[in-house]
Every structure is written in C-alpha cells, then in structure tokens.
Amino acid sequence: MHEIRFHGRGGQGTVVASVILAKAFFSAGHYVQTFPVFGLERRGAPVEAYLRLDKKKILVRSNVYTPDHVVVQDIKLLDNLDVTQGLKLGGSILINSRDVPDNLDTFSGFQLHFVDAVKIASDNDLGTRTNPIVNTAMIGAFARVMDMPPMETIHTAILEEIPVKANNNFQAAQQAYEEVHTFGLVD
User: Fold this and answer.
1) Strand partners, 51
2) Quick one: which of 111, 113, 152, 118 has its CA closest to 135?
3) Which of 168, 173, 165, 150 is nearest to 23 (CA)?
4) DSSP H or E segment with residue 136
5) Which of 81, 146, 153, 160 is in Cβ range 3.0-4.6 Å of 27 for a Cys bridge?
C-alpha cells in the first residue's frame, strides 16, 4: 500500500489534487481512499489531504500517520511545519519550488524532488499572478516521481473534476511531469 500526505493552503486545490489522483489511480486499477483534514477553513490556511492506494482492498480507516510520500504545494509551509513527520525513511518529498531548499539537512534520509509549479501554473493561465493554482502541476510532477498513474488517466480525471480550463490544467500536469527535478536521497 502507498500512503501519501498532501500539504497546501486553502485555495491552492490541495484537496482537489488528492481527488484527481485518486480517480486516476482508480482508473488505472488501484483501490483508493482520499480524504481531507481542515484546520481553519479559510483561504490561505494550512490544509492536509491524504491518499491511499493499493492493488487490493484497503481496510484501514484512519488518518495517514506514516506516509510513503509527501507533496508540499507551498514551500512557505516548511517554515512552520515539519513535513517529514512520520514519513518513512527513504520516502519521497515533492516540493513546489524552483530551487532545492536551503535547509537540506531537514530532509536527511528522504528522496527530494522539486518542480516550479507556480511558474507552470502561471504559464498555463491557472489562477492569478498573486494566487496561482498549482494542484494539477503538482499532480503531473507526482506521477513522474512515482512513475504512475499513466498520464491518460490523469487527463480523464482532470476532465471529470475540473471541466473549466481542463486543457490548461492537463498541459500544466504534462509540463510538470517533464520538468520535475530529482535531488535524490539526501544524506
């Protein structure tokens, strides 16, 4: 079973990202669970969402406490949040950032990946200049990190979940898939 924890802010599409990925994995033949956890329900407040996937039925019904993968949609969350909490040793962290974060020692023992989802969202006219919607770019980058699900299933899930600007969203996912950078295992 793969367990994924998403960190983002209200308005970035964090919950929608987990739903789209769940639909894509389901279409690719996996059993899935996805659910959000909200603190303050307002734009800009930290948000978490979880996704489980497996080739067999998932019987666990709890939050994800020891994820295999973490997706961070806003690098500023690293200032106030330990995104590595509970992450399995050797697990992967995908961060929305144009550069490798300065504090690499924080990620010791984990695989680090990053993508400039803000630029990709802006390039594809998703959101505004001051509030880009990065979720579909992060989905594409995550698909590359995991080498699944197939981009065709992501395209179908985007069409179902985000009919407005569906092509822009899929282009953002495809662009991020191609532009994600892997730093590798941090010592």
Assistant:
1) 4, 34
2) 118
3) 150
4) helix 135-146
5) 153
Structural domain of residue 50, as residue ranges?
Answer: 2-185
In the chain, the number of structural domains is: 1
Q: Which DSSP symbol is given to 127?
A: B
Q: Note if the bond before 149 is cis, omega within 30 degrees.
A: yes
Q: Coil, helix or strand for 165?
A: coil
Report yes or no: 75 and 102 within 8 Å, Cβ to Cβ.
no
Burial class (CB in 10 A: 0-12, 13-18, 19+), 146: middle
Cβ contacts of 151 within 8 Å, gap of 6 or more: 140, 143, 173, 174, 177
User: By the 8 A CB rule, do 154 and 173 touch?
Assistant: yes
CATH of the domain at 7: 3.40.920.10
Residue 167 sits at φ, ψ, to 5 deg, of -65, -40
User: Where in the chain does DSSP place strands (E)?
Assistant: 2-9, 31-38, 46-54, 69-72, 92-96, 111-115, 181-185
pTM, entire model: 0.94
